Amino acid sequence: MTTTSPPPTIRRRRGMTEEAAIAAIDGACRRLRLPTIRALVADAVAIAQKEQLSYNGIIAELLLAECDDRDRRSSVRRVKAAGFPRDKWLGDFDYDANPTINLATINTLATGDWVRKGQPLCLIGDSGTGKSHLLIGLGIAAAEKGFRVRYTLATRLVNELVEAADDKTLARTIARYGRVDLLMIDELGYMELDRRGAELLFQVLTEREEKNSVAIASNESFSGWTKTFTDPRLCAAIVDRLTFGGNIIETGTDSYRLAHTRQRMRTTE
Q: Cβ of 34: how many Cβ atoms within 10 Å?
């Protein structure tokens, strides 16, 4: 015979003073881990009295404030967990300095719909053209939308995979990188990878293929990737996995950083 617990009821505490009620609210918020309500309840009561809010109105305002703050804290945790080396916001990108970049395209990507669909993204262009800024900015935007994001440098990822293979923990490492919604690989193409490293990277990409998104930034056009992946067939397979059904953004060849430095030097002469 199964028994069910009785439905919750309000147990009225007779004779509770205003001070006791305030202390009870504070203690209950601590116990239930409701820091936002605990911080705002006094102001909310004052506003409710001034604006003659209903009981339901004040309760709703407090609960919604708690939900909003939890969402904010979760967003901060996801951005921190992504491992970005620095903060780069899409709103700070100078589109006038690099007219090659289409603002509408970036705004569309910032919605995170491509991550939801598991599509890849490639940012291709010379150094100083804003690839990493856009990569990190889109990663932060995705994390703020609720996606699990992980940022890494290509060489760091390959070194981690090689060490995991030597320690016989490769399957676990690949699975860990396979679980995040968006894997961001920066500086792909800056250094040549030996066949073993390239094959291990290929395993990570295969694990994520058409399931979870991969975004990369590279200073080499796809035709130049044979300098990074020296096996032509493996190179072609990697390019295929990073471009099929995805988004390709070319950031151009004119370095914004170099132009900015030259402009600054001219103004100080």
A: 20
